Amino acid sequence: MKVTTHRPMNVMAIASAAALLMLAGCSSGGHGSGASPTNPSQSQTPSDPTPPTQTPQTTPVGQVGEGVGNTVVATGNAVSQIGKQLQDANLPVLPDATQDATGGVLIKAGETVATLGDGVRDGLGKIGAVDNPVGVTVGNTGNVVVKTGETVSSVGDVVKSLGSDQLSPLAPVVNPVGGVVQKVGDVVQTVGGKLGDTLNNGPVAQVTGATSKVIVPLTTQLTNATQTVGGATGLGTPVNSLLTTLGGTVASGGSMLTNADKPVISPLGGVVTELGKTVAVAGVALHGNGGAGGAGGNPLGGLLNNLPLSGVTGGLGGVGGSGSGSASPLAPVTNLLGGVTGGLGNVAGGGSGSGSASPLAPVTGLLAPVTGLVGGLTSSVKGAAGGAASTGTSGQPALGLPNLLGLAR
Q: Where is the signal peptide (predicted)?
């Protein structure tokens, strides 16, 4: 009796323990619905936050270039669409092969134009945002040549198609000619591939890279200058508004053409739309924050100072200065210009003063009224700008070319 009473309890205990183990296994298993808790004794080091990356901004000139590139791309796409419409059209006058091949020529020609636009959009259209915008545009020339070769080969297809269907008697003549045209297209494609490799590597890439380093600050400073003029004259805001409104109207007209769903007409809608967008963005050249590029608010001074033309500006400084110090690398040129400006200075000063006679005395004598007027104007400009004019040997203020250009140090 004692054994009989305890057996059921042992079985129930074993069953309960087994059930608990099974539940624990399910909760800790990889395929169960439970999740294992994180061990609080093990601290997890948070990953360092990724600093936000600043995307370079495209300059206003680049924005206009991008619009031009998009317009060219849209033009190419329109030509290709017209080619596809020609292939699908019902023209009983032409053999089917000729109609299809002619449409193929238009398609390839459109791709060529669109490829050209790609280079402008992705290169010059990204001034300020890419390192070598000139290199991108120039390097894309190889792709344009390749597409041109494909177009020429398509012309060979058209020539061959003239010997099909009801024009089959012409096959012995047109087939060899078409084959020659196709081979010419193949050669052009090969040349385009090699040209692309040449333009994207080696000395050409170095030249385009150096050119980009000049063009980027050049366009930036020119835009600053035009925006400064637009702000000073009060024309920046109204002109920008006018161009934005005009561009939006043109773009809306393009959308209407696209939605018209008419052969030949509808494909041109994209061109008109992109043209309108380009016109709308062009107003930024006159409207913006602007900024003084150089001393005294002269944006042209900043433009010239930022360009790698130290030798040239040094030479100009030698012309406008006293000539003391180290020799300018443009000494032969500046010496010649010194004689010219000296002659003009003597005339502007009435011809008085000591020193040797100017070698241009006969000419400067004839120009005395003009140079007198110019001298008065330059004196007025310098007076308005608040610049201190240096005094020469003749007692008259010098022309001060470095001051006018913002080159004075």
A: 1-32
Give the tokens for residue 177.
Answer: 């000619």
Q: Express each pLDDT in 351-386 by its tens digit.
A: 444 444 544 444 444 445 444 544 554 454 345 444
Rounded (10°) CA dihedral 400, 402, 406, 409: -110
Query: Distance between CA 212 and CA 263 in Å, rounded?
Result: 42
- Burial of residue 191 (number of CB atoms within 10 Å: 0-12, 13-18, 19+): middle
| 53's tokens | 């990356």
Spatial neighbors of 41 by CB under 8 A, at least 6 apart, are none
**Contact predicate 116/76, CB 8 Å:** yes
Contact (Cβ atoms closer than 8 angstroms) between residue 403 and residue 382: yes
Please tell me the distance from the alpha carbon of residue 245 to that of residue 267, in angstroms, as a whole number.
23
What is the CB neighbour count within 10 angstroms for residue 46?
A: 6
- Residue 361 identity (one-letter amino acid): A
Please name the amino acid found at residue 300. L
- Percent of the chain exceeding pLDDT 90 equals 46
Instruction: Break the chain into its structural domains and give their ranges.
Output: 60-200, 311-404
- Alpha carbons 140 and 137: distance in angstroms, whole number: 5
Q: How far apart are CA 237 and CA 245, in angstroms?
A: 12
Alpha-carbon distance of 242 to 154, in angstroms, equals: 45
Residue showing tokens 């305890």:
6
Distance between CA atoms of residues 309 and 329, nearest Å:
12
Give residue-wise pLDDT tens across range 287-342: 764 333 333 333 333 333 444 444 434 434 444 444 444 444 444 434 433 543 45
Note whether 183 and 110 are within 8 A (CB).
no
Q: Any bridge partners for residue 127, and if so which?
A: 130
The DSSP-derived string for 318-371 is HHHS---SSPPTTHHHHHHHHHHHHHHHHHHTTT-SSSSPPTTHHHHHHTHHHH
Kindly give, in sequence order, each residue whose CB lies less than 8 Å from that of residue 195, ignoring residues fewer than 6 positions away: 141, 142, 145
Contact at 8 Å (CB) between 63 and 281? yes
Cβ neighbours of residue 165 under 8 Å, at least 6 residues apart?
95, 96, 97
Q: Which amino acid is at 324?
A: S
- Integer CA distances (angstroms), 39 to 8, 35, 36, in order: 40, 12, 9
User: What percent of the residues of the chain are helix, what percent strand, and what percent coil, each to the nearest 5?
Assistant: 70, 0, 30
In eight-state DSSP terms, residue 261 is: -
